[in-house]
Amino acid sequence: MMFSNTDIQQIKSHGLTLETINKQIDNFKSGFPYANIVKPATTEDGVIVCSDDMAEKYINIYDEFAKNHKIVKFVPASGAATRMFKDLFDFIATGTRNETTDKTISNIDKFAFWNDLKPFLPQNATDTDIIKCILTDSGVNYGNQPKGLIPFHKYPEYAKTPIEEHLTEGFEYAKSGDTVNIHFTISPEHKHGFESLLNRVIPQYESKCGVKYNISLSEQKSCTDTIAVNMDNTPFRNDDGTLLFRPAGHGALIQNLNDIDADLIFIKNIDNVTIESLRGDTIKYKKMLAGILVDIQKQIFNFIQDIDNNRADINAIHEFIITKIGIKLAGKLTTPEYRDILNRPIRVCGVVKNTGAPGGGPFWVKNKNGMIDLQIVESSQIAPESKPIMNDSEYFNPVDLVCATKDFQNNKFNLTNYIDEETGFISEKSKNGMPLRAMERPGLWNGAMAKWNTVFVAVPGSTFTPVKVVSDLLSTAHGIK
């Protein structure tokens, strides 16, 4: 692919290299291979189900660990709420009623943001007036805000945003001594809003909870962007002739995660929160997942030290890899190969029962070297002829992760070394009315963590209360009776 000197300068200023861009264009041409799915992970094979006694054991392990280790809660929060309000935008654009719009209008006074919205409504407001006041700067302008800044839950004192719910959640299970460390990934255009809210509420929560909040923010790095191409895979250019680069999806946040220095990291999406009175299961099972991780990590560290001191029980290591970290080994490996498998980042993932339509979730996947291991697989990674396998899926992925990103010598792993670069995704978009092809990098919890050691653990559906559309707020989990 030929690029001008001006193009090359633009590529470099974006933190990218010409080699990377050419590789991206090759990926557009060749596409990404589908995941080689063997079967879903199930209760009988690949998903741990803990009894109450086991859960209590792991909670105690984590509570002891947290006393003298650094814990961080990592919250992807960079996305705008556009998808949350998609149906409302459709109503404004077409005038056609839809279920979400009808439900929103008929229950408008039940939303936590009702008191903020009321002053903007004209007398005898029509349905269109109400929706416009929700979405645009003629009202509260939530259509251009991130989910984190939108009031989700109504309390006697005031309405709380997801940011505030994550602050109180963090106090319950992500304390390091008397400090709660929370990291939010944000978009540049929303930085001021996040900082303003945090500066206003943190003193209140520190006084209420008796802890110090250490809050950090980061933006998706421009060096993780991908080039856009025309439908014939030539570089797409803006009206001024410059190349178009686009954010490459949440998988780009592996770079942000790589910058976190912690002994244990919780990952949970910004919109997956519930009201305080219903948070008991969330706290219990977060701690349980963390305790399982701490216990497995301790065993791994012991095995690695045994290998390094020439006293390893290879049969025990072989069995541990198969039964505890979900890798089906075809046969015996060399001692260095066993050590390599053990010496990787670890994630313990909560999975919930699949009660809806089949979709992405925990699967056994065969990789290029013939080894079968546990992976989170999104539906877009599954070949059409493999879709029937999804019908047998017992669990799906609610993005409920606990991660360990340091080795047995307390050195940080370079997480970019554990990405499967062949798990990207190509979609069709448009810019100024012109069609284009866009590329997303391997997703944060699927391809970007494909080479981690992975453990799946069943957690109850009460721990998964996301807000995908605005009417999801009209549920018991979000305080509506």
Question: Helix coverage percent of residues?
Answer: 25-40%
Low-confidence stretches: none
Instruction: Describe the largest sheet.
Output: 9 strands, mixed
Distance between the termini: 59 Å
Strand content: 15-25%
- Kindly state the mean pLDDT as a whole number? 93
- How many strand units? 19
Count of discrete alpha- or pi-helical segments spanning 4 or more residues: 14
Shape: globular
Report the radius of gyration as a whole number of Å. Answer: 24 Å
Give me the secondary-structure category. Answer: alpha/beta
Structure description:
With 481 residues, the protein is an alpha/beta fold. Helix content is 32%, strand content 20%. It is built from 14 helices and 19 strands. The protein has helices at residues 5-13, 18-30, 52-66, 86-94, 99-106, 114-117, 127-135, 162-173, 191-209, 254-258, 280-308, 314-324, 335-342, 387-390; strands spanning 37-40, 47-48, 71-76, 153-154, 159-160, 175-176, 179-186, 212-219, 226-227, 245-246, 264-268, 327-328, 346-353, 361-366, 372-377, 395-404, 425-431, 434-440, 453-458. Strands 2, 3, 6, 7, 8, 11, 13, 16 and 19 form a nine-stranded mixed sheet that branches. It has a four-stranded antiparallel sheet with strand order 1-14-15-12. The mean pLDDT is 93.
What structural keywords apply?
481 residues, alpha/beta, 9-stranded mixed sheet, 4-stranded antiparallel sheet, 14 helices, 20% strand
Can you summarize this structure?
With 481 residues, the protein is α/β, with parallel strands linked by helices. Helices cover 32% and strands 20% of the residues.
